[in-house]
Specification:
The structure is a single chain. An 8-stranded mixed sheet has the order 3-4-2-5-1-6-7-8, sandwiched between helices. By secondary structure, the protein is α/β, with parallel strands linked by helices. Helix 1 packs across helix 10. It is built from 10 helices and 8 strands. The protein binds adenosine-5'-triphosphate and magnesium ion. The site of magnesium ion (MG) has 4 residues, from helix 1.
Length: 245
């Protein structure tokens, strides 16, 4: 049961959208997937048609002292998701503190999920940044995908902010018409260890999929980006199946 954490080199790169899309594509390939939202923004659920006002999720369950499994929801036969839960600011601070004080909670939860044998893949939708809690959560993953836009901001960040050990870099939002993006991508191909051998293009289908509250491959399976995420899912099957601890 490989655990893949997806995180943006900065915010807004498309991490949550790609997490939902990858979960869908893995499920399309016959795999079983649990996608977990670790971001207090609580947006992953919106890719899975959840009513905006429904605030269930693992952090809400934790605050209410009930099992995290009760926050999980089924999207389709082989695809479940666990929202963060709708928390106000004071509740978010309280969960953050609890997480820092009990780093073992997630390890125990993942051990239970593994023992249940329900899922072949776990995807973690991470917020950008490197707070102590985020560092603890990244350490749960067998593989970390760091998402980048091909722009100078991300390029600068590659060299001035710490990156998780042995992470893979995934380019999202690539526009072939941009000379700068072509150049940056070429440079990364030549110099960036861990760059994945595929890109996800900027594609209106991804933007529309969220507006329609569906994962990309369900909303627009024939789109270029959906095809690329399917390639990513196949790459995971070929390269990560043996990576689980
Ligand atoms: N390849 C793409 N082409 C077009 N639009 C995209 C693409 N990837 C993401 N988007 C759009 O960009 C916006 C931000 O995406 P998303 O919420 O997935 O980013 P994020 O990295 O998770 O952000 P945050 O840092 O807030 O968690 C969304 O409206 C999404 O539809
Ligand atoms: Mg996000």
């Amino acid at each position: 049961m490989p655990v893949i954490a997806l995180q943006g080199v900065r915010g807004g790169i498309g991490t949550t959208s790609i997490t939902a899309a990858l979960a869908w594509s893995l499920q399309q390939l016959g795999e079983s997937v649990l996608a977990i939202d670790l971001s207090p923004d609580n947006l992953l659920r919106l890719h899975f048609n959840t009513p905006v006002g429904l605030n269930r999720g693992w952090a809400r369950a934790e605050l209410e002292g009930v099992a995290w499994q009760q926050g999980a929801m089924r999207y389709c036969e082989n695809l479940d998701f666990l929202p963060f839960g709708g928390l106000n600011l004071a509740e978010q601070r309280s969960i953050d503190q609890q997480q820092r004080q009990a780093p073992q909670r997630w390890r125990d939860f993942l051990a239970q999920v593994r023992a249940s044998g329900h899922y072949r893949w776990i995807l973690l939708d991470m917020p950008a940044g490197n707070t102590p809690v985020i560092e603890q959560q990244l350490a749960l993953a067998d593989t970390v995908f760091q998402l980048m836009s091909p722009d100078a901001n991300c390029h600068a960040r590659l060299y001035q902010q710490p990156m998780p050990a042995a992470c893979r870099f995934l380019v999202n939002g690539y526009s072939a018409a941009s000379l700068l993006q072509q150049d940056l991508h070429q440079l990364w191909l030549q110099t960036l260890e861990g760059l994945l051998p595929l890109v996800i293009h900027r594609d209106e289908a991804l933007a529309e999929a969220l507006a329609m509250k569906q994962p990309l491959g369900e909303y627009r399976p024939e789109s270029l980006a959906a095809d690329e995420v399917l390639t990513l899912a196949n790459w995971c099957l070929l390269n990560l199946q043996g990576s689980a601890r």
